[in-house]
Amino acid sequence: MKWEYLVVHLSDNNDAEDQPEIDVHLDADTFTEKLNKYGEAGWELVSFEWITNGARAALKRPKNS
What we know:
- The protein is α+β, with helices and mostly antiparallel strands.
- The protein contains 2 helices and 3 strands.
- A hairpin with a 2-residue loop joins strand 2 (44-51) and strand 3 (54-62).
- The radius of gyration is 14 Å and the shape is elongated.
């Protein structure tokens, strides 16, 4: 089987950092929603890394021949 890959940067909106009264998990929930959209499009998450101002995710799915 052949694969295609996609690496994406998920941006942090800094809400939790700028407004301490906001739930600190708010941004993580946003990342989850974005990753779920990739999953609906057939992408499988293969790696995830927190980076400055967000996260980097690598995804794969079977390549159409």
